Amino acid sequence: MGVAHTNAPATRRGGRFVMTPTTTSVSTTTSALDSSVLEGRRRRGGGGARKKSKSRRRDFFFTTTNQKASSGTTLRNAIGKGGEDVSVSKTTEKIARAIAARREDRREEGENALGAGGETSLDGLKRIDDVWTEIRNGGTAGTAREFVKTTTTTVGDDGYEGTTSTRQFDVVVCGGTLGILLAATLLQQKTHAHTRNTKKLNVAVIERGKLKGREQEWNVTRKELSVLCALNVLTAKDLDEVICGEFNPIKCGFYDSTGKKQKEENEIVTENVLNCGVSPTKLIEKCRANFELNGGTVLEETCLNGVTINDECARLDIGSETIETRLVVDAMGFRSPITLQARNGEKPDGVCVVVGTCAEGFDEAKNDSADLIYTCTDIEDERQYFWEAFPAELDKIRDNGKKSNVRTTYMFSYLDAKPERPSIARILDDYWNLMPKYQNLKSLEDVEFKRMLFGYFPTYRNSPLKAKFDRVLQVGDASGMQSPLSFGGLACMLRHLPRISLALTEALEDDIVDKNALGAINAYQPALSAAWLFQRCMSVQIGSSSSPLSSSKTFINDLMRINFGVMQNLGDDVLKPFLQDVIRFKPLTRTLLSMTRNNITFVPSILLRSGIEPILDWFRHFVALGVYDALEPLVDPGMAWAKRTSLLSARSAFLLRRYLEAIEYGAGNDSVDKEIRRRAGKNRPR
Fold it and tell me: Nearest CA to 251 among 171, 397, 368, 413?
């Protein structure tokens, strides 16, 4: 099994254990994460401010950080069913005040410290914890009003009083932070040989705030980001400009409480996984420029209030007017009101809570590598903490020969949404207590914090989410296409961008926009579903600490150490797919066989920990993964035939191509190289 969000681990699609928080600060509507800085699929770091002296820095922190963070300001008066009073510690208060002071300094200097969704205040922490508490307690946080309505009335009767319909589009993308990537790609579709229609689409993007990125970096590989060049959204020069810096090696390591091996002996070292820091500000700026240059419309600082579907179009209420579109693309993240309505208040099957910081003052000589997934403790309080960290702001020092002393650090844990789970503020306290140990610091005072990060990422076994309404399709985090391990927004979007843009273009060519046809775009993917067992193995169930069958505090670290050791011995063709968020049948099979053969005594522990039912459920997805892998060679010739044949109706050809795509992506056998060849009209090499 494999284990990155990241904006995740990363199994944005399903295979690795590295978290790559992707958050979703939902753009056009209210978001549970609108105060989190964890957006996008890959980690980010970055963002700078005027450096203060250490003497001033010490005014904000405890002189001793080994003690447990003491309680401070209460965020809520209500106490959840689990019995925990949601409050922040004095440590959190002090660090938040220090960060706020830095932001004020930057405002005085005329600089914008954070972009949309980049607030890291105590109020932001309160809002997220309020929603998290309601979700755990089965409250109303997971439900939404009837945001999308379906009617059979004529186009002129929109149902909105005092509004008029003045503009019409082919596609409206709701949520601009990652939606702008798809929107820009849609306007490039006419340049590709696989589209019949040479008429350019009329596309708009709706964004609740300003359509711009934040300074905190995202992390992907150069190859992943280069798909935007293949799609004519970025040039090679643009690519170099949006990449702030590259670093290697990339490390994985798991805590050994026996102390039999040195830390370095437990490390897995590789290269070129999440090793590029990407500027969200520059990336979104360049994608927006490309989009508008090709005739796209940006409606920023525009709130989407509701959608009404009729036989001829979808009508979007944006307050001052109602606009019409043939197709609505929901890129508003997992807290999208459209997604909440479609899931009908369903409680998430799994949650990853992520906290972290971006800080400066690290040892420059050692800040040239990244941790993809690390542990420094065993299971405690029915949760296992994982870590990852990346160098940041490399672009600010690359011309003077120095090394960056800025680093972004994340701590995350896989949980369920039961009432007994702790608040995010409580988990943040654990971060303050453990971060010096993980980063080899004497205390928190050794570094100066630039921002504080917090968020939660729910996932559902019922994913990807099938279209529930005609003319409406969820993409990105809103669709649940990201892995339950990685929660990775940016990398997941980049991976599926060619497929989704092609599918939407073909749907509009022949006006195939009913929910059944659109549902084929978000088809079943066994590679994604198979990741659920891995997520369960990496989480700790409530009450397991008192169970003699599953109470081992070292189980997860032992499992990870064995798993990664096996994959490393099998070579990069097995290890790399897992680290790059891809579950494939042959590498997975080799890993499982090797683990069973070499560590047969550990297999019963896995069975006891996971349970028979989840194992059986996983096995059917594993079998499907093998079937999809066997059928994958038929994809390229099948798609070409379906496009040119006259034996099929337009609808049948459309559906056939979507099912063939589902086989390729569901088997984890897609790639940027393959997409480049396909769009260039070249056949697969024999």
Answer: 368
| For residue 249, cis peptide bond before it (omega within 30 degrees of 0) | yes
Question: CA torsion, points 589, 532, 19, 459, in degrees to nearest 10?
Answer: 150
| DSSP assignments along 630-650, one per residue | HHGGGHHHHHHHHHH-SSS-H
d(CA 77, CA 50): 37
For residues 531 and 414, is the Cβ–Cβ distance under 8 A?
no
pLDDT, tens only, 68-82: 444 454 444 333 344
Q: Tell me if 521 sits within 8 A of 500, measured CB to CB.
A: yes
In this structure, the strands spanning 370-374 and 250-253 are parallel
Coil/strand/helix, residue 312 = coil
Q: Which residues of 14-44 are buried (b: 16+ CB within 10 A; e: fewer)?
A: bbbbbbbbbbbbbbbbebbbbbbbbbbbbbb
pLDDT in tens, 15-38: 333 333 333 333 343 333 333 334
pLDDT digits (tens, 9 = 90+) for 385-405: 999 999 999 988 766 667 899
Q: How far apart are CA 530 and CA 643, in angstroms?
A: 31
**Contacts for 623 with CB less than 8 Å, ≥ 6 apart:** none
C-alpha to C-alpha distance for 407 and 2, rounded to whole angstroms? 26
H-helix segments, 137-275:
179-186, 222-225, 227-230, 236-242
Asked if residues 143 and 446 have their Cβ atoms less than 8 Å apart, the reply is: no
> What is the model's pLDDT at position 197?
55
DSSP string, 233-257: SS-HHHHHHHEEEE---EEEE---T
pTM (2 decimals)? Answer: 0.85
Q: Report CA dihedral (196, 201, 206, 211) to the nearest 10 degrees.
A: 90
Asked if 4 and 215 count as a contact pair (C-beta separation under 8 A), the reply is no
Query: Which SS3 state, helix, strand or coil, does residue 316 take?
Result: strand
| Start-to-end Cα distance in the chain | 30
